[in-house]
## 1
Amino acid sequence: GSPVRVAAVDLGATSGRVMAGRVGPRSLHLEELHRFPNGGVRANGSLFWDVLGIHREVLNGVREVARTGPLHGIGIDSWAVDYGLLDRDGNLLGNPYSHRDSRTDGVPARVLEKVGAADLYATTGLQNLPFNTIYQLAAAQGTAALESAEQLLLLPDLLAYWLTGKIGAERTNASTTGLYDVTTREWAVDLAKRVGVPWAILPPLRDAGDVIGPVLGEVAEQLGVDAGVPVVAVGSHDTASAIVGVPATEDDFAYISSGTWSLVGLELEKPVLSEAARLADFTNEGGVDGTVRFLKNVMGLWVLSECLRTWSDQRIREASLAAVLEGAVDAPALRTVVDINDPRLLPPGDMPSRIQQLAEEAGEPIPRTPVAIARTVIDSLALAYRKHLRTAAELAGRSPSVVHIVGGGSQNHLLCQLTADAVGIPVLAGPSEAAALGNVLVQARTLGAPLKDLGAMRDLVRRTHELHRFEPRPGTDWDAAEARITR
Ligand code: LFR
């Protein structure tokens, strides 16, 4: 068949990208045509997303894709859990909050008093993160916005609504809300009622691969395209799209989707809802084609990027990413390790001081220089990957033979090598744009490309992208380091 060319919008917490993706029978080509900075905006004591600014950049990017060739479809993925509310006229009620806003402090405990933790997990199968949508909505109870809301739209669905006028909730992202039943794959209406969440604002569910609708006439005009270009639902949760883009040929693989967050785990056919999984606080997120991602959210490269931001605010000029990574390669291994999932690392702020504080509390040597702090973060991430991949394998009864690292972090070779060392199996790193590739592939299948299943999509990624292989090196005592942080 003739190649399919689509626009893939992939939104991250620190930047958004619009790519042109071209898929032929044996080819897969991605070109980044637009990139723009993103980040929380602090106003009136809260942390918001500038969602209209994002919408404008989405339009700018898609227009660029259309200007440079045919446009057969548009797909949008972004980080999960955050949402906008619409009033009865279909207008946005206020700015969407960032999940790193502090309004959910103390809220999970209150909700868990109404629905026990065991009940909640049995239904949703989610890691108990303070920013899960259910907790954000509980925090918003009694606010004017929530009281006048007619619809809740997760961010990629909100952006798709502005393109098409169509309302819905794509399942991979809905599965991160804490209001979705991972077994029946429907909204958990009873749960919402028990928590006092207005369940009627939850829109109809749709699947990745469904056509959402053609772009609205006025949007087609803004984009300079023909009315009728379809917006296609992709794995609208970026992690769902990233795992579609994992170039696995083996069945038993583990993955780390490494960006702002590190999502560390396994792809399964069915959720693991055991008591042991709940106590280990593992998540079961919905994937494309009915798969389940059994994983742990690890604080990720966010910690390093907040360090870099802090150093640049403090005018420490020599602390660029390249410079600290180069220094970190030669820094002593495992000199200082901390619990990288400490909740105090979640909000934006002075990350170097927080790392020093955690080291001090744990009786570890306090890292003093940007290089030593960066090395602490990277060692601690590798240690966390090791622990959670072992737990995932044990809980799911698997024994993965390789770890695929995809996303921006796959370019951090020190972290990839340390991950291989720590986990004790080879790491295959790349592609760094897995989420955009997954977005493109799901659209292409809907638009007629012969990609019958995830296996076929992954094959195509494997054949068209070069991977870096890291073999585990012996000689470092990771067990002893783990004992230090669990002490
Ligand atoms: C990664 C990600 C994670 C989700 C977090 C918050 O970008 O989507 O999967 O837990 O962001 O939405």
## 2
Amino acid sequence: VTTTGKMISSRLPPLPTIGEIIKLYKLRAKKQLSQNFLLDLRLTDKIVRHAGNLKNAYVCEVGPGPGGITRSILNTGIAELLVVEKDTRFIPGLQLLAEAAPGKMRIIHGDILTYKLERAFPKHFQNMWEGDPPNVHIIGNLPFSVSTPLIIKWLENIANRNGPFVFGRTQMTLTFQKEVAERLTASTGSRQRSRLSIMAQYLCNVKSCFTIPGRAFVPKPKVDVGVVHFVPLVQPQINQPFKLVEKVVRHTFSFKRKYCRRGVETLFPEAQRLQLTEQMLCIADVDPTLRPGELSITQFRALSDAYNQLCSENQNLFTYDFREELRQKKLLHKPNNQRNVR
Ligand code: SAM
């Protein structure tokens, strides 16, 4: 504690700048891996502020790279920080940071898509699902090619309360390509409304925090970046298995600009297509001439419930695959000599 009464114990001691770290360890960004770094600590502080109050928190940072966001996290008075980085080149620079914050930071050299985060979080941070979110946070600026599959995986984990969510409603603050961030947060009827909007919003309170212009990164990516904050809901807005919701939403959006009826039809085998589509929309009380983007989460809940009811009445319906039926049909119409006979 200083004479002014300010706590200084959680602040990092003076360190080389991120730019110097990059030079020192020859960390040239690999374009093919979409590595774009944030060197401006005011920006990394801003991202971390949007994660909420991190005092005494357990934080996992995914893809720390040269460690800009890492420094901002370490400066917030966290209890512990776990970083998961895939690229070996960054490990020495991260070790330098870990030495500057003794006992606070653990480095995992691994792939976040396969790393079992649930094993890494300390048990005493666990909170009841129905209670407040645990003091556990995930923060990351990952390549776009990783952040989208990762959020889909984590949304399924939220639905099943496993993975990083065995600890309760773990909050996440993640970056995405701006267009993806817009889809995640898009409201009913907006141009960006898509599958991702429904999947994220039926499970989470999703908030768009701010946009980082591409020019803030080194090297500069072609697109701007959106920071998005997720808090899992106590009660998901749709109470059906994740895979069922995912199927209904995917099919309904398969003809984005057409009436929703057109996409819903693809849930059913040709022989019963029209009858079951009409039945499903009627049970759900959804106007067949609405476009998929005009449907609210409540309407997707009704559609998922209706589809579940039809699946329980029609054996094998859930496993029916529209694309497979199309493929078979095409095969049948091919001349004999072009068929792939095994
Ligand atoms: N967070 C740093 C920043 O903001 O400056 C680096 C951002 S860079 C866009 C993405 C980082 O994620 C890189 O360091 C990259 O090596 C790492 N990364 C990429 N794929 C990963 C994965 N599957 N698991 C863990 N880290 C990954």
